[in-house]
Amino acid sequence: MILDITETLNGIGDFVNSCLAMLGVGDFASITGEQWAQWGIDFAIQIVATLVLFLLVRFLLWKPLTKMIEARKEKIDSELNQAEEANAKAQELKLSLEDQLADAQEHVKGIIAKAEKEGNERREKIISEAKAEAQRRIDESVAQVDKEIANKQKEIKDTIVSVAFDAASKILEKEVDKDKYLDLVNQIIEGANIK
After folding, report:
1. Rg (CA), the chain
2. CA distance 21 to 28
3. CA atoms within 13 A on the CB side of 10
4. If pLDDT is split at 50, 70 and 90, which confidence band does 43 have?
5. 175 — alpha (psi -120 to 50), left (phi > 0) or beta?
6. Which residue, among 22, 21, 25, 19, has the nearest Cα to 38 in the 3D structure?
7. Mean pLDDT along residues 104-110
8. Between 25 and which of 3, 20, 152, 179 could a Cys-Cys bridge form, CB atoms 3.0 to 4.6 Å apart?
9. Mean predicted confidence (pLDDT) in 8-34
10. Contact status, residue 185 vs residue 161, Cβ threshold 8 Å
11. Is 177 left (phi over 0), alpha (psi -120 to 50) or beta?
12. How far is CA 124 from the centre of its chain?
């Protein structure tokens, strides 16, 4: 383990010597006090320059940069909030529209059912009226046929009476009382069930 540390320190020494060689110094032991002083001044100037650069960046650039980043963050947060609100409103509107659509569909179903019911009632009414009209016409036709039958039966009866009267007149060749004859013929016809 001690060997490892020694090897590591020797490696670091070699690295420093190689860096110093690049600067024009042979090795670490050959550095003079004047070179150390110059390096100290250079190092101090580098530290001060770095510190000044850090302070300039910190006060001149950092605050405006952080303000700009904060403003951008606030804007993005605001836009995100607006987007979330818009999304929530869109969801509410979607639900509202779905409810309205469902109500409209129910309303349409109600209208269709009502129209169907009214159509069925109207159809039944038309059928009923048509049946009533057909029955009325049938009744009128039956009454007319009955009237025609009665008229024809009367005509037949009158013809029979007339023919029988003429026949009886010729047979008897005498004048027969027409009223008595008609009564007699009517009795004969009624007995024969001729109406």
Report:
1. 67
2. 9
3. 6
4. confident
5. beta
6. 25
7. 91
8. 20
9. 64
10. yes
11. beta
12. 35
User: Which residue type occupies 140?
Assistant: E
Query: What's the CA gap between 109 and 111, in Å, rounded?
Result: 5
DSSP character for 57?
Answer: I
Distance CA 28, CA 36 (A): 11
* Residues 42, 56: Cα–Cα separation, whole Å: 20
Q: Which residue blocks in the chain are alpha helix, DSSP H?
A: 2-22, 33-56, 63-172, 178-191
Rounded Cα gap, residues 110 and 9, in angstroms:
96
Where does the pLDDT of residue 194 fall: very low under 50, low under 70, confident under 90, or very high at 90 and above? very low
Under 8 Å between Cβ of 184 and 165? no
**Torsion of the alpha carbons at 7, 10, 16 and 17, rounded to the nearest 10:** -140
Tokens of 4: 């490892």
What does pTM read for this prediction? 0.37
Query: CB within 8 A of 168, min separation 6: which ones?
Result: 176, 181
Quote the CA–CA distance of 75 and 69 in Å, as a whole number: 10
Token look-up 């605001």 returns 78
- Residue 38: how many other CB atoms lie within 10 Å: 11
